[in-house]
Amino acid sequence: MQDSTFQAIGYWNVNEKESYTVTLEKYKVQNGDTINREFYKYDVDITVTDSTADSYTIEWNYGNIEVKAYNELIEKLSKTSKISKAIIRTDEFGAFEELVNWEGIRDEVKRLLTASMEEFSNIPNFDKLIEQTISMYSTKESIENNIINEIQQFYSFHGGKYKFGEYISTAMQIPNNYGGKPFDTAVDIWLDEMNPEDSNAVIRMTQTVDQIQLMDATYTYLSNMAATLGTEIPKKETLPVVSHQTYVTSIIHDTGWIIYSINDKIIESDNIQRVEQQIIELK
Fold first, then answer.
1. How many whole angstroms separate alpha carbon 90 and alpha carbon 88?
2. Alpha carbon distance 130, 146 (integer Å)
3. Helix (H) or strand (E) holding 73
4. pLDDT tens digit at each of 283 positions of the chain
5. Rounded to 10 degrees, what is the CA torsion of 169, 170, 173, 178?
6. Could you tell me if 182 and 173 are in contact, meaning their C-beta atoms sit under 8 angstroms apart?
7. How many angstroms from the chain centroid is the CA of residue 38?
8. In what order do the strands lie in the sheet with 33-52?
9. Can you tell me whether residue 180 is helix, strand or coil?
10. What pTM, to 2 d.p., does this model score?
11. HSE of 106 in the Cβ direction (CA atoms, 13 Å)?
């Protein structure tokens, strides 16, 4: 901190463990009203299980899952969809590299979704929707991009060196949750606070997805869904304009452990805002 810089680096020992509470709230804002609210809460124990000269292996063990949703179907599906354990590998700085046990998670998700397909067999076309969802979660890339969002958030800033008062503006690609090519994204990152007395720093980031690419991916997804359900394929020119922005703020201890992190994702189309707010908090 003597030169007004902060490096988000993991200084971790084997068997070191920290426990967190994760909350996720989803809702829509339409005509000033908040609707379709969903709330998720769970605990996670993060343990460093192995360390080499250029990597860490880390286990995320989940428990105490709570779900409250605006309808029974969403609530039941959500309660059974959270994985029990993720094993990841980072580089020597703590930056995320890969999900090691992705095949086990793929099989677990498939088993849970298949069970729900049997439970809700009375809902028209529900089996087709579940089959399409299973196919979306069939690869390592799709599992890493869609199933472990809290892990991606946790390690967002690791591996970087940041200077107080200096903005980093760059372009990068982020995963396309629809399964297509990654989106070009404008990114701004800055070191907002340095707290030497508490040995931590506050780092912030904004991401703005390329709107044309987002519109194309949305249309492709809706067309595929219509084909699956046997409904009319929408006309591209009738789709509302869509925007997608993400705001991440993390308080990071100089050992590399997250103290607090909040991720706000806002997707807006046709005067409807879809908001997702995920918070990771050290117990």
1. 7
2. 15
3. helix 72-81
4. 678 999 999 999 999 999 999 999 999 999 889 999 999 999 999 999 999 999 999 999 999 999 898 877 777 667 656 688 999 999 999 999 999 999 999 998 888 888 877 777 788 777 877 887 888 788 898 889 888 999 999 999 999 999 998 999 999 988 887 767 889 999 999 999 999 999 999 999 999 999 999 988 888 888 887 877 778 887 887 787 889 999 999 999 999 999 999 999 999 988 899 999 999 999 9
5. 30
6. yes
7. 16
8. 96-99, 85-91, 55-68, 33-52, 17-30, 272-282, 258-269, 242-253, 200-209, 183-195, 167-174
9. coil
10. 0.90
11. 17
Other residues' Cβ atoms within 10 Å of the Cβ of residue 180: 13
- Dig out the tokens for 185 from the structure: 């994204």
- Measured CA angle at 112 (ends 107, 114), to 5 deg: 90
Helical (H) or strand (E) element with 29:
strand 17-30
Distance, in Å, from the CA atom of 141 to the CA atom of 96, rounded to the nearest integer, reads 13
Residue type, 242: V
Residue 39 in tokens = 């709330």
* Alpha carbon distance 117, 111 (integer Å): 10
> What's the one-letter identity of residue 185?
T
| CA distance linking residue 214 with residue 233, whole number of Å | 18
Q: How far is CA 283 from CA 42, 43, 259, in A?
A: 12, 9, 9
Q: Which domains are seen in the chain, by residue range?
A: 5-282 (2.30.230)
CA dihedral 182, 221, 102, 98 (to 10 degrees): 10
- Ramachandran quadrant class, 165 (left: phi over 0; alpha: psi -120 to 50; beta: rest): left
How far is it, in rounded angstroms, from Cα 1 to Cα 11? 16
- Grouping H, G, I as helix, E, B as strand and the rest as coil, residue 13 is coil
Residue closest to 79 by CA, chosen among 61, 66, 63: 66
